């Protein structure tokens, strides 16, 4: 896995759009396939991207009863994604079942995909969390709690915002991955994200991997913008 490359979110409606976007890139990338593309194109999109040499984060954020998540993960493990995820709100048993499913589905001799837990979405504010989820903690404490149960369930890390990355590193250890979306370049737009940061701040705050979507995919020159993001991300390594 290109562990340190920024992950580009391929949030496109079809694979024609995704391949059109990827075409000018000369290097192998770490890309994220989310539900928009996956639900349109199906599992073959993952194997095709792998055949092109890219690393793939399959971001389906599963959240269901443990048995269903286990069976789904068993299937997902077969198509070669490097990284998958579940909602930590599904609970410890569900997350343990997800890991079990991945282990069952991984072809013999191969390493199982890494699996991370979604804590609180980076589009969620503390006020929303309190009013709508009725969680009466600070947002950071809620994220830390979800990180801690994700670790307890045997997950490899979590998705969180940059704002919580350093506390998670401290609580869960440096090897527990902190994958952070909500990345914007200084002059960029926020879109619907709330807890945002630049690539340099993400690095300084202890993100293990950054996920960047619209700041790259909607820029006038995606290749140049990706280079800029990568440069900023690697600057403080
Ligand atoms: O365009 P933008 O950079 O905001 O895209 C971020 C990507 O990361 C989206 O594909 C979104 O689904 C994903 N994501 C997120 N927050 C999470 C988990 C995933 O924004 N907690």
DSSP strand count: 8
* Helix content, binned percent: 40-55%
- Tell me the CATH topology: TIM Barrel
Each distinct ligand: cytidine-5'-monophosphate
**How does the overall form come out from the CA principal axes?**
globular
- Strand order, largest beta sheet: 1-2-3-4-5-6-7-8
Main sheet: strands, sense, barrel: 8 strands, parallel, barrel
What does this molecule look like?
The chain is an alpha/beta fold. It has one domain: TIM Barrel (Alpha-Beta Barrel), CATH 3.20.20.70. 44% of the residues lie in helices and 16% in strands. The protein has eleven helices and eight strands. An eight-stranded parallel beta barrel has the order 1-2-3-4-5-6-7-8, surrounded by five helices. The radius of gyration is 17 Å and the shape is globular. 42% of the residues are buried. The mean pLDDT is 94.
List the helices and strands and how they pair.
Layout lengths: L6 E3 L5 H8 L7 E5 H7 L2 H8 L3 E8 L3 H11 L6 E5 L4 H14 L8 E5 L7 H8 L5 H14 L4 E3 L2 H11 L4 E4 L18 H6 L4 E4 L1 H4 L4 H13 L3
Parallel strand pairs: 1-2, 1-8, 2-3, 3-4, 4-5, 5-6, 6-7, 7-8
What attributes does this structure have?
globular, TIM Barrel, alpha/beta, 237 residues, binds cytidine-5'-monophosphate, eight-stranded parallel barrel, 11 helices, single chain
Brief summary:
With 237 residues, the protein is α/β, with parallel strands linked by helices.
